[in-house]
Amino acid sequence: MDKYGLIGYPLGHSFSISYFNQKFHDEGINAVYENFEIPEIDALNEVLDSNPNLKGLNVTIPYKEKVMQYLDTISPEARAIGAVNVIRVTHEGSKIKLKGYNSDVIGFTKSIEPMLDKKWHKKALILGTGGASKAVDFGLRNLGLETVFVSRYERPGTIQYEKIRPEDIKEYNVIVNCTPLGMYPKTEECPQLPYEAMDSHTILYDLIYNPDETLFMKRGAQYGAQTKNGLEMLLLQAFASWDFWHEK
Fold it and tell me: Is 10 helix (H, G, I), strand (E, B) or coil?
């Protein structure tokens, strides 16, 4: 039986395990998907050694960047993004070969593109600086938008939340939350922004999908902002993961 799985830490509720095991059941695929909760990235070797029938992995926080040093090859897109969230595992004799891809960028780009109007949407704020935010940045720039990262900390090439003014919200009217703020169970939290400056031309896209509507989305919607959560992106990137694992 083929095996697929997810590496990350911690792994609480995982969309991938329920999605893929349901897919295998529904489509009569002789495979299983497991969660591999590893406290350090170097435990990846143990996962590979103890699962000889492993064909592919998804990668979640905090390992999307750290995992790259373990890979034999990396797709040009994933290398440009600087983060990997899909690994194809192949066996060549006694050797294990690992190839890294990024399906986040595919899922995100396909999901947000229908919301964008070139007339209004030219600049975007990306909240957070982790692996997912890099894929979001790559996707938005591919769609022709200028981007700026927002961080709590002073970092090169970022602005801080407390420095964002109402006029910035008018100019950077596509805002993507790549932070865990607002994720269940801490649903009463949201990024600190001047929400009152938002209007019907503002797009708030949240990578979180649990809850369905985060406080970030709710507060923007009060002022007419268009909102979307990360569930469709998750589905689209799961489809892309499967394609990468079975690339000819």
Answer: coil
CA distance 30 to 247: 18
- Nearest residue to 208 (alpha-carbon basis) of 228, 236, 194: 228
Helix (H/G/I), strand (E/B), else coil: 90: strand
Of 207, 152, 200, the closest CA to residue 178 belongs to 207
Which strand ranges, in their side-by-side order, compose the sheet holding 86-92?
31-37, 2-8, 54-59, 86-92, 95-101, 73-74
pTM summary value: 0.90
Give the chain's largest Cα–Cα span: 61
State how far the Cα of 194 lies from the Cα of 187, in Å rounded to an integer.
19
Q: How far apart are CA 129 and CA 103, in angstroms?
A: 18
Q: Which residues are catalytic?
A: 64
Radius of gyration of the chain (CA): 19
Nearest CA-CA partner of 230 in 87, 77, 60: 60
Q: Which residues of the chain have pLDDT under 70?
A: none
**CA pair distance 95, 49, nearest whole angstrom:** 11
* Residue 54 CA to its chain's centroid (Å): 23
Beta carbons of 195 and 223 less than 8 angstroms apart: yes
Tokens representing 226?
A: 């268009």
Chain centre to alpha carbon of residue 204: 16
Instruction: Classify residue 181 by its DSSP letter.
Output: T
How many CB atoms are closer than 10 A to CB 201? Answer: 15
Confidence at residue 157, expressed as pLDDT on a 0 to 100 scale: 87
For residue 46, the model assigns a pLDDT of 97
Measure the CA–CA gap between 218 and 203, rounded to whole angstroms.
Answer: 12
